[in-house]
Amino acid sequence: MKYFYILLPLLLMQAAFAFAQQKLPVIKAKSKHAAINDGGYLDKNAWTISPGIKPDIYTAERTRKTKWVTFYTDIDSIRVKVKPGTRFNFMVLLNGKDSCYTQIASAIPPEVDAGPKKAIQDTIPFTLTSYDAISFKAVINETDTVTLHFDTGSWNVRLTRDAIVKKTKLLSNQPEFVAGRAEPNFNKLNKVLKLQIGNLTFINPDFAATERTAHEMDGRFGWNLFEGKQVELDYDKSLLIVHSGRLLKAPKGYVKTNLEFRHSFMIVKGAMKKGGREYNSDFLMDTGSEQAIILDSAWTAAAAYSDSLKLIRTIVLHNPRGDKFETRVVVAPGFEMGGLKLNNIPALILGARNPAGFPINDLGNDVLKRFNVIMDFKKDRIYWKANGLMNAAYREKS
Q1: Alpha-carbon dihedral 141, 197, 287, 106, rounded to 10 degrees
Q2: Average pLDDT for residues 32-41, to the nearest whole number?
Q3: Which of 178, 226, 303, 333 has the most Cβ atoms closer than 10 angstroms to its Cβ?
Q4: CA dihedral angle for residue 166, residue 172, residue 175, residue 181, rounded to 10 degrees
């Protein structure tokens, strides 16, 4: 069974119809730059007002809770209540003449009543690389084969610039580059109209170029491609199984925990352990990281957790944007989540501001691969079960 992801075209057609039929609220602007307060988080550089895009859609950060989103121009503002499935249309009048049709949309699409639902499963084999990347062969626009990894710490589809140049036809619309007379312009690529991963098909996925991704990979795809579905990662059998329609009930032997979202990152609760004490924390799930655990410097300082831990070494990490972070690698005595325990885990302590943009600890795939998981993006739950990699050696020897 194939999933044809036509949500974006449908939303655009519905939005265009709505704009044509409604008398829209209007706010004014003299500058193209706008700020957005999304559920209490203000980003002063969040938006560029674009008269040429109809509609220009701002997708609010994912949450199942009702929240307020406020859109600020340099001289005006509008406040909108957002809950799952909602879309709000308005117009920005730029410099008194340009009508900019804008929409604030929930990241969770509207519920569609399609009658009785059948259980649908799509099973795709994957390769766990030597760098712990969950790797798949993918085909772009039915012609270009690339290697992508599933990254729960990312969104949408990203391809490295090197892969775009060497493995795709996404620059074929730039004759000067094709003729060798100009550098590639990665802001004017051909569209990714179709992405195939195994027997899954994604139509018009949100796509962009990136500087970096996991070792040996051409790019990555994020969790949000599976919104409203369940994604099962079975490391014992090297299978990714996507459940839709009537969703799967958790098998026996799995431990259930809540799945939360912050700035659209997947968050689970756990605890670091030391000296008989538990240090509770939120953890970002990041299968795109080859590390075991990354501890936020602000959290370790506030909890005084890193005091007296054995130092393994000091290293420099890079995030996908190329930023450098000097880190200390220490031995963490223990980690626990939902009653599942690990001992003597190598943990990196960041020496700079967290690249996620907020204080949060991080579970990389050197820990996550030790559990078969079912991620339920319909009810925001996650199910865990220890697998055959539970006692495997860590990449960073502790």
Answers
A1: 70
A2: 95
A3: 226
A4: -10
